[in-house]
Write a structure and sequence with these properties.
four-stranded antiparallel sheet, 1 helix, about 200 residues, mainly beta, globular
């Protein structure tokens, strides 16, 4: 009798263990449901020093240079260069160096106002303004909205012409959405890029 009870107990324990394993296998991996952007392969080459704008400025820090830090320790810098346009470099804390300077928007018209950078959830958003007579005090003739993700080698760019410039930019906590605003709104999403206004 005791032997039968012991066998029944052993079989019962085995059944409970098997049922637990079967049920556990039926559940989705919580990592697979993570809404944050997927990890990226960093194809950037980090072997340069940070450059700066060559536009003259003598009253405190130049508004033609901007820098932002990402949650993972990387940094993004943007600046204006005469005869080139808007230039970008990004920094790796692991390599302790910057990428080579890359023009992400080429123009030979004047830079207007400063550059605004925001970062959240691995996404970087930028606003920069341009116009043919900005150095003479005229308002911008075009406003650039830019968004970079992943290894920051490719940037989505939207240029709005005949526009005074975006006044504010916000990046969602997960980095999947960016909103540029003024009297109108320009929206960027990780799934679709820039959407129609």
């Amino acid at each position: 009798m005791r032997k039968s009870a012991g066998q029944a107990l052993a079989w019962g324990s085995l059944c409970v263990w098997v049922m637990t394993a079967v049920v556990a296998c039926g559940h989705a991996d919580p990592v697979a449901d993570d809404p944050s952007p997927s990890p990226f392969q960093d194809s950037s080459t980090y072997a340069s020093e940070l450059q700066r704008s060559d536009l003259p400025w003598s009253d405190g820090p130049s508004p033609y240079n901007a820098e932002v830090r990402l949650d993972d320790g990387r940094r993004v810098a943007m600046y204006y260069r005469q005869g080139k346009g808007l230039v970008e470099q990004h920094y790796s804390p692991k390599a302790k160096a910057w990428t080579a300077a890359t023009v992400i928007h080429r123009t030979d018209v004047d830079a207007c106002q400063g550059i605004e950078l925001r970062a959240n959830g691995g996404t970087v958003a930028a606003v920069a303004d341009f116009g043919p007579y900005c150095y003479d005090g005229e308002p911008p003739a075009a406003s650039l909205a830019a968004v970079g993700t992943g290894d920051l080698t490719d940037w989505d760019i939207d240029v709005t012409k005949d526009f005074d410039g975006w006044e504010k930019v916000s990046v969602s906590d997960d980095g999947r959405e960016v909103v540029f605003g003024r009297d109108t709104t320009l929206r960027w999403t990780l799934a679709d890029g820039f959407a129609d206004r």
